[in-house]
Amino acid sequence: MNTQLKRKIAFALLMGIVTTGIISFTLLALNIGLSGEFIRKWLRSWALAYIIVIPAILLVGPRLQALVDRTIGKEG
Q1: At 76, is the pLDDT very low, low, confident or very high (cuts 50, 70, 90)?
Q2: What is the pTM of this model?
Q3: DSSP 51-67
Q4: Is residue 55 a contact partner of residue 73, using CB atoms and an 8 Å limit?
Q5: 3 state DSSP class of 72
Q6: Of 60, 48, 49, whose CA–CA distance to 8 is shortest?
Q7: What is the pLDDT of residues 33-64, one digit of tens each?
């Protein structure tokens, strides 16, 4: 596996952790409040969101990048 592919995968994994954590925390806090079971529900929601978003980032991301490159153009 080449370095560029490793970097893209690492980025997807880290971006997935950050974005799903922020979004799941915010939406759960707004919808159920910071109740006694909040942390348990949040961690469950976060894990499920992460499982869903990583394949989406890895599969959809390159297609979206290609669309942006065609629409706006590549630098360089």
Answers
A1: low
A2: 0.73
A3: HHHHHHHHHHHHHHHHH
A4: no
A5: helix
A6: 60
A7: 998 899 999 999 999 999 999 888 888 988 98
